[in-house]
Write a structure and sequence with these properties.
12 strands, 48% helix, Immunoglobulin-like, four-stranded antiparallel β-sheet, 508 residues, 17 helices
């Protein structure tokens, strides 16, 4: 007996722990929303390309577009143009779109649109990059100035990270004569990046230019330059203006390298205008769209991976164990008397179509008339199988008559009475009549009332949209419920109704 108790406790612990771990993994690791009201942002990024085409010259427009291996997941990418061919190629970790046309003239407008989200971005690929580079050739006064700047930088830095940060701060010190000489009167951000790269190259520290877009809605902007270097494990990002380390979370890398954003052959005066907007979307719908556009597919092996019609069926079936658990609590702890365990749950399923008030009325009417017929058949001394067959046929006829009259009276809700399970109603009538004969009419009425009460409570809980969503999205909670059911199976204590029943003994 002791080994049996230990076995049961271990089983309950394993089921509950497994259910909690799987559910926690879905919520905290996969990021699946807990409620249907949870939303997340979608970003719409538009790049408008304008230029003037040369007459009688073929046109070829090349523009960098974002790589698709960042923290953001691309949900849709479109290239909008008129009479242009479109192609995508990859070079040095960048992506380029190429628009081409044989004959165009006048002002031309092309569009690139990207819809993305940061949620469900999945695991990033392992970072790779150079850890050594050759020095840039420099001579004369520039070499002397660079060496003069590098001496204190080496003294005040301890690793690659601090070396780069110290270099950027030194270059931004415009009062230093060595810095003035290297700038040579050109204070542009591009020239500043060139000087930083020069100093780092002398120390054999690799550096790349990174051009980013800030995800801010309704604000026109141009790509912002950042610098990055690989330390052997990760990319380190730095602002060339301040030396601040770490790429802000609202920045998206558009392209890397020294090349310009756009290159036009057969045209002139190219101009790229960026516009951004954001919108909210239901998180679970966003997860489905993300699944379709990435290799993560974390919903593919969930119930959301089933066909839509099958999903609708399982949204009903998945809450059945909850109804059974409610009946179990009412019977084992509350002491409520019902016609078995599953009959109230199946009646609760029928209430989903008829609604609670109308369903109770129809159930009471059909059961009362069925009991009257069952009482009449008892006088004919029929065997059980023919008697059940007659009652079932009577239930079908009664349901058809109620549906017909409901339709004529304009009560369309009455048409759903046909969804009541025929066999369940027939067996309910049979079992109530047997209870009436064996225990009396009062006890039969009490059992029928308990069945209706239990079915009503189960219906109310099984119809809560949040409960249906949670159990359908996180089916591992069923393991927790099984563990609780197993624990209830060994309960031998008093029930709530028995406390009132034996109240006199407590007084004594």
């Amino acid at each position: 007996m002791r080994s049996l108790n230990l076995h049961l406790k271990v089983l309950i612990t394993l089921l509950v722990a497994l259910g909690i771990l799987v559910t926690a993994y879905q919520i905290f690791i996969l990021g699946i929303p807990v409620t249907t009201d949870e939303t997340d942002y979608l970003w719409n990024v538009d790049a408008k390309v304008e230029f003037q085409a040369n007459p009688r010259d073929p046109v070829k427009v090349q523009m960098f577009v974002p790589p698709l291996n960042q923290d953001y997941v691309s949900l849709n990418e479109s290239f909008i143009s008129n009479n242009y061919g479109v192609g995508i190629n990859r070079t040095d970790g960048n992506r380029k779109v190429t628009w081409s046309a044989r004959r165009v003239s006048g002002n031309q407008t092309l569009y690139y649109r990207l819809v993305l989200t940061k949620r469900y971005s999945g695991e990033k690929p392992k970072a790779k990059g150079p850890i050594f580079r050759e020095s840039i050739a420099v001579e004369g006064a520039e070499k002397v100035a660079a060496e003069a700047l590098l001496a204190p930088i080496r003294q005040h830095s301890a690793d690659v990270e601090t070396f780069i940060s110290e270099t950027i701060q030194r270059v931004n010190n415009k009062s230093d004569d060595n810095v003035k000489l290297l700038f040579a009167g050109n204070d542009s951000i591009g020239n500043k990046a060139r000087i930083i790269e020069l100093l780092l190259s002398i120390a054999h520290v690799p550096m790349e230019r990174v051009h980013t877009i800030r995800l801010v809605a309704d604000q026109p902007q141009n790509p912002e330059l950042w610098l990055r270097s690989f330390n052997g494990k990760d990319w380190l990002y730095f602002s060339p203006e301040t030396g601040e380390q770490g790429l802000p979370s609202d920045r998206m890398i558009w392209w890397t390298g020294d090349e310009s954003l756009i290159n036009v052959e057969g045209g002139k005066k190219p101009k790229v205008t960026f516009s951004l907007s954001n919108s909210e979307m239901n998180a679970i719908q966003l997860a489905k769209r993300t699944d379709a556009n990435t290799d993560v597919n974390f919903l593919e092996y969930s119930l959301y991976g089933l066909p839509l019609q099958t999903q609708q069926t399982y949204q009903i079936l998945i809450v059945l164990p909850l109804g059974v658990l409610i009946i179990l609590i009412l019977r084992n702890l509350g002491g409520l008397q019902t016609l078995g365990t599953f009959t109230p749950v199946l009646i609760a399923l029928a209430f989903r179509e008829t609604q609670l008030g109308f369903g109770i009325m129809l159930f009471t009417l059909i059961t009362a008339l069925g009991l009257s017929l069952r009482s009449y058949l008892e006088h004919l001394k029929l065997q059980m199988l023919p008697r059940l067959s007659v009652v079932l046929t009577f239930v079908v006829i009664l349901i058809a008559v109620i549906s017909l009259f409901s339709h004529k009276l304009g009560l369309e809700r009455g048409l759903s009475v046909s969804l009541f399970p025929m066999v369940i109603l027939t067996m309910t009538i049979e079992r109530l009549s047997i209870t009436w004969e064996e225990r009396g009419g009062g006890h039969a009425f009490k059992v029928a009332l308990g069945t209706i009460a239990a079915a009503s409570l189960a219906y109310l809980l099984m119809s809560i949209p949040e409960v249906i969503y949670f159990m359908f999205t996180f089916p591992a909670v069923l393991l927790i419920m099984v563990g609780f059911m197993l624990a209830m199976g060994r309960y031998r204590g008093y029930r709530l109704t028995e406390l009132f029943r034996f109240k006199a003994f407590l007084k004594d």
